Amino acid sequence: MLKSLQSFDEQQSVEYRLNHLLQSVSVLYKRGHYDDCRDLLYKAAKLAKQHESFVHQLEIIRWEKQIAYTRMDIDYLHKQLEHLQFEEDRALEQLRNVTDYRKFFFQVYTTIKREAQQRSADRKSHLQNLVDQDYFNDPALANSHKSRIMYYRTLNVYHYATLEHEQFYESGKKLIGLLESQPHFLRENLSDYIAALSNLIMSCGMLRKFDEVQECLEKMRTLHPITEDDRRKIHRQYYSNKFALCSTMGDFEEARREMDRCVQESAGFDTHDYETASFYFQYCTICFGCGDFDGALAYLNEWLNQPRSVEREDLQSFARILSLILHFEMGNNLLLESLLRSATRFLQKKNRLYDLERRFMHFILELTRQISAREQQAVFQKMKHDLQEVAQAPGIKALLQTFDLDAWIESKIRGEPFAAVVREKWSRETKMD
Predict the structure, then answer these.
(1) Cα–Cα distance, 101 to 387 (Å, whole number)
(2) I need a surface site. Which of 21, 240, 317, 394 has the fewest CB within 10 A?
(3) Which helix (H) or strand (E) holds 208?
(4) Phi, psi (5° rounding) for residue 227?
(5) For 186, phi and psi rounded to 5 degrees?
(6) Which candidate, 106, 97, 16, 103, places its Cα nearest to that of 54?
(7) For 71-128, what is each residue's pLDDT tens digit?
(8) Is the dihedral of CA 323, 325, 326, 332 positive or negative?
């Protein structure tokens, strides 16, 4: 079965075709068919150059030298050696160049994945040091298509992490344009394009370019995956961004319908590879917007009960706030004081008891001690005023986009459904735009 799959991939993948051509060269070389070797090397060189397969280019040049040496073709070596050496040096330099850019990308990526929203000056300084390299002074220093892709991918995630929304959008547009300018690369590797498209959707949302969000979502939905991993990523990125758009618009009923489709589609994925947990937090906020607090709490608990890693430590903390909100909505006042103590211990242990979390938990404690609706409304009024100050701190505003805390507080003050307040806020802000 493996041999059949490999045979199929040889017809579909450039890498397999190049490997097959070079294996054929080896077979023919052993039997002394040197002219046939050179015919195959010519085909391989053309394919390797088109697809920037620098490792294969180096192997092709090695074979060309080896065949000339075996045949004692001094005339060929005399005429071609300088050119072959130039091609070899260039392939080595391009390979080194793309390797360096890939190294910087993964350093930035690993740093931002530890905490998806910026609240640390030290982390921002560390990120700045990573991109404050000669490599990023000029895109022309990236000397191949693959290097330029890594150049813009690195800057794109950097601008996201440092909350530079305009630069995040602009670098994302350039990256998508660059990827789409060479479609033959996309037929070999779609993974980078999926990630870039997802980031562009996010940046358009931040800048309220919602027409572009819809366009990008349509692009995402119509992509044809190459690998099983592509299929999972397209599914995950489409739905996570669609949920975010619906939640921003306050269209939680549409989000619930999309959520049902997402759950249905997820049955077609291998349970060992499918990241169900990545959706639990969004499922929670969708159920909350629909007024289904039991469902919201069930999904939040599912998310909290997943094995934790360093990834999304900011959400792990914010989840404690959302849990308190849900229990308040469900009228579980007897539990709230115990939950407050537990949440405080967790945040202190994680060194994440920031001003936002401290103030919010103080207000929740006040709410548990007020019996009448009028007294609680006064607490919400004070909460709104107090949290407006801290919400302007670096990273807080972006974090609060995960759940519209301001809209929830406003809904309690006005005595209106949360979804209605979000829709009104959406309508007001889009008219201003």
Answers:
(1) 41
(2) 394
(3) none
(4) -115, 170
(5) -70, -25
(6) 97
(7) 999 998 999 999 999 999 999 999 999 999 999 999 999 888 765 554 556 777 878 8
(8) positive
Q: CA 287, 289, 290, 295: dihedral to nearest 10 degrees?
A: 20
- Residue 113's H or E segment, with its range, is helix 74-113
Phi-psi region of 395 (alpha: psi -120 to 50; beta: other; left: phi over 0): left
Q: How far is CA 251 from CA 228, 231, 243, 403, 428, in A?
A: 31, 26, 9, 14, 15
- Note the pTM of the prediction, 2 decimals: 0.76
Cβ-based burial of 137 (10 A; exposed 0-12, middle 13-18, buried ≥19) = exposed
What DSSP assignment string belongs to 8-72? HHHHH-HHHHHHHHHHHHHHHHHTT-HHHHHHHHHHHHHHHHHTT-HHHHHHHHHHHHHHHHHTT
| CA 35 to chain centroid | 49
Q: At what angle do helices 14-30 and 2-12 cross, to 10 degrees?
A: 100
User: Counting beta carbons within 10 angstroms of the beta carbon of residue 151, is it exposed (0 to 12), middle (13 to 18) or buried (19 or more)?
Assistant: buried
Both structure tokens of 192 = 């980078």
Q: Tens digits of per-residue pLDDT, 349-400?
A: 776 666 777 888 888 888 888 778 888 888 899 888 887 776 665 555 545 5
Q: How far apart, in Å, do the first and last CA atoms of the chain sit? A: 57
Q: What is the CA radius of gyration of the chain?
A: 28
Torsion of CA 211, 214, 216, 219, to 10 degrees: -130
CA separation for the pair 282, 288 (Å, rounded): 10
Q: Which of 12-16, 244-248, 415-419, 421-425 has the lowest mean pLDDT?
A: 12-16
Kindly list the domain boundaries of the chain, sorted by start residue.
7-72, 308-433
CB distance 135 to 151 below 8 Å: yes
366 is written with which tokens? 């006040």
354: left (phi over 0), alpha (psi -120 to 50) or beta: beta
